[in-house]
């Protein structure tokens, strides 16, 4: 699925329960500070309240949504260089300018600035200077592909074929191939598209090659292993009711139904997982 970024504004919401802000069990004991409840010094989002759904005043303009990244329990490194630095390099996230978990260098990041521009990049220490201009951000592992300015093309990330240091999960037997989802940024002239990819069974390397074939500049992994975790839906209106089209038919099982009424995930009720959503611009170019 491709979303024309000239037509939509990108939003991000944390789930009511995930991702959490405490320590991931994957992080090494050697990098944890036992005096702190989490890598950022907090153990919960309180006093902030997490709604886990699109704000009611935006529902009429919401055109699509997809599930975000890993839970906190899987969102840190257990091996490789990233496991040894920055308290295990827990995946960071920001919602509405509030930093719930610090953005870590070296991690793939999908972000939205305070001007509404969506970007995808590998975060660096130098990027911290721009934090006051970040409205939303979600990190999820290392990049699938990155843009090479020297050659003018994108290439697979350095860790895309390394199971442990890349934190690609899959199985304890280091089998890479499984159900996965990812997102990439495609730029052609002045046109910019966010492409969501669902892979019924793929390795990170295969995902990287597919996103390269679509001419993407940058790509990152999202969640995996279940239709619930790789959910993507498009919302339209029919007779004042919300009609939902899912990328894969089985994703409809996550929505709620009562008689003839449908309560779409992320729009009709709070969800425990984080997600991205797209609202139609009121005055598109």
Topology summary:
Elements: E1 2-4, E2 8-13, E3 62-67, H1 86-89, E4 93-95, E5 98-101, E6 108-113, E7 118-122, E8 134-139, E9 143-148, E10 153-156, H2 163-166, E11 178-188, E12 191-202, H3 204-213, E13 216-224, E14 232-238, E15 241-246, E16 256-258, E17 261-263, E18 275-280
Overall description:
- This protein is mainly β and 285 residues long.
- The protein has a domain at 17-50 and 70-141.
- Helix content is 6%, strand content 37%.
- It is built from three helices and 18 strands.
- The strands form four sheets. It has a six-stranded antiparallel β-sheet with strand order 1-12-11-13-9-10, covered by helices on one side. It has a five-stranded antiparallel β-sheet with strand order 2-18-3-14-15, with no helix packed on it. Strands 5-4-8-6-7 form a five-stranded antiparallel β-sheet, with no helix packed on it.
- A hairpin with a 4-residue loop joins strand 6 (108-113) and strand 7 (118-122).
- It is globular and about 60 Å long.
- The chain starts with a strand and ends in a 5-residue tail after the last strand.
């Amino acid at each position: 699925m491709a979303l024309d970024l000239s037509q939509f504004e990108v939003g991000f919401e944390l789930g009511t329960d995930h991702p959490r802000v405490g320590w991931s069990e994957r992080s090494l004991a050697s990098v944890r500070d036992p005096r702190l409840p989490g890598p950022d010094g907090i153990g919960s989002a309180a006093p902030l309240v997490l709604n886990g759904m699109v704000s009611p005043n935006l529902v009429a303009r919401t055109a699509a949504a997809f599930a975000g990244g890993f839970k906190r329990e899987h969102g840190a490194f257990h091996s490789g260089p990233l496991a040894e630095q920055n308290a295990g390099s827990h995946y960071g996230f920001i919602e509405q300018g509030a930093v719930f978990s610090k953005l870590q260098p070296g991690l793939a990041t999908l972000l939205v600035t305070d001007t509404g521009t969506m970007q995808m990049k590998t975060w660096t220490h130098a990027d911290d200077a721009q934090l006051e201009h970040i409205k939303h951000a979600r990190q999820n592992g290392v990049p699938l592909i990155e843009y090479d300015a020297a050659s003018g093309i994108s290439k697979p990330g350095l860790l895309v074929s390394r199971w442990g240091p890349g934190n690609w999960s899959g199985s304890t037997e280091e089998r890479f191939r499984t159900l996965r989802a990812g997102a990439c940024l495609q730029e052609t002239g002045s046109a910019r598209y966010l492409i969501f990819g669902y892979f019924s069974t793929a390795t990170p390397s295969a995902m990287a090659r597919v996103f390269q074939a679509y001419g993407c500049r940058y790509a990152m992994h999202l969640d995996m292993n279940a239709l619930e975790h790789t959910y993507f839906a498009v919302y339209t209106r029919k007779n004042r009711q919300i009609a939902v089209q899912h990328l894969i038919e089985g994703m409809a099982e996550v929505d709620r139904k009562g008689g003839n009424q449908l309560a779409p995930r992320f729009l009709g009720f709070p969800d425990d997982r984080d997600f991205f959503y797209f609202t139609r611009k009121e005055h598109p170019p």
